[in-house]
Amino acid sequence: MAGHAQPVYENAAKNAAENTVENISEMPHGMGDLYPYSTDHRLVHVAMAETDAQLLHLEWSDGHRQTLHAIWLREQCACVQCRHPASLERILDQTGYSLDITPSHWSILENGDLRLTWPSDGPGGGHVSLYQAAWLRHGGRPPLDVPSPMTWGAALAEGLPRFDFGSVMAREDALLEWLETLRQTGLTYVENAPAAEGIVANLARRIGTLRETNFGGLFEVVAVPGAISNAYTAEELPLHVDLPAREYQPGFQFLHCLANETQGGNSLYCDGLAVAEKLRTEDAAAFRALTETPIIFRYHDEDTDYQMRAPLIGLEQDGTVREIRFNPAIMTVADCPAAAYREFQRAYRCFLTLTRDPGLRLERRMTAGEIAVFDNRRVLHGRRAFTAGGGRRHLQGAYVELEDVNSKIRVLRRHLR
Ligand code: OGA
Ligand code: ZN
Ligand code: ZN
Question: Which of 33-42, 176-185, 279-288, 383-392 has the least mean pLDDT?
Fold first, then answer.
């Protein structure tokens, strides 16, 4: 193929003038991506591999080398025939070109873009693709991911991350700083909020839509007669995550304190990720039992009957902890043979005991105007029993999904990082 025999990068400057491509101006978002990819380096050399006519070797001004496959490049074309310019979504049929496709011509343009011409691809052939250098340098991968979790123990009580409600509501940089911290610690307090109903929804909607559940869009944590959950009594709530009987436990929980004038009722938190990691290093057999034994969680009342079968510790394929599903109040049975039950219970108690370790948990009293926001699939929360009838205790709650928190962080980072 012509492109093989004679790489044209040497002629890049000349080509840039000659090969003015009409649809450059029709690619307002570069590689069809709203994220502003950037790089300090320039492409200096492009050549086809001698052994495989579909592998393109790129060389950069800093010596960095990259190998890309021709099919990969064809598929990523962001021209208006391949990707809708408004939706930025693909319209190219991914079976619409040969599996043996390889570019017939390539050049580096003056602006640093890589330009490829494809042979007889569709009517008239000669389909032209442009790739932004910065996008190539990132390997076409979506923008850097959100911050990773950092585990904590009781010491967080002194340094509990706090954010000002007014700032988070008014300023995007304050919103981003709060959400990035939230992804790291999994627990933050937003303070100085008006102690009024509905305010928690305003804060949650800074991130995305509310996750509505059978308890409502907003839920009222108050002691009532005929309660449909222990949460709506004055009982102690041992450390737990909310709604583990749901396939997707709500990602983030908001609890806004409107009044806390009773005797008792202090809040408890424990980093379930820290507990799981401690168990992994100190008792590998218990860790294994809790990652492998499914537990049946169930919530049911007059109107609903939710059931979910999943282990207490959910792992990613690479072994990192994805989620904690722990709630003694609505855990029914572990789904394992009778002969294995004792070992499961031993492991379960190890976890339970660790959540009560004073070095791993923190206790504090919420005051009106504070909003606790935490990762409900990671951070366990609870409260001490309180004396109903003393004074008023009212928390208003809401949930937002993890994917909405991550999405908001990425959108804010486009301009702020
Ligand atoms: C809940 C809950 C905590 C509290 O409603 O699920 O954990 O302090 N409430 O009442
Ligand atoms: Zn195209
Ligand atoms: Zn709860």
Answer: 383-392
Closest CA to 368 of 276, 271, 261: 261
Ligand 1 atom with the smallest distance to the CA of 240 is 7
Q: Which residues contact 392 (CB under 8 A, 6 or more apart)?
A: 259, 261, 262
Q: What is the DSSP letter of 356?
A: T
28-42 confidence digits (pLDDT tens): 457 889 999 999 999
Q: Whose CA is nearest to atom 1 of ligand 1?
A: 231
Distance CA 352, CA 118 (A): 62
**Angle, CA 129 vertex, CA 90 and CA 22 arms, to 5°:** 100
Question: Both tokens of residue 263?
Answer: 């005797």
Rounded to the nearest whole angstrom, what is the distance from the C-alpha of residue 142 to the centroid of ligand 1? 37
DSSP character string of 392-403: -EEEEEEEE-HH
What phi and psi values does residue 170 have, to the nearest 5 degrees?
A: -100, -30
Structure tokens, 41: 């380096």
Closest CA to 204 of 226, 242, 178, 227: 178
Mutation test residue for ligand 1: of 243, 383, 393, 396, the one with most atoms within 8 Å of CB: 383
Buried b (16+ CB within 10 A) or exposed e, 200-229: beebbebbbebbebebeebbebbbeeeeeb
What residues are in contact with ligand 1 under a 6 Å CB criterion? 221, 231, 237, 242, 255, 267, 381, 383, 395, 397
H or E segment to which residue 130 belongs: strand 128-131
d(CA 106, CA 99): 19
pLDDT per residue as tens digits for the range 326-369: 999 999 999 999 999 999 999 999 999 999 999 999 999 999 99
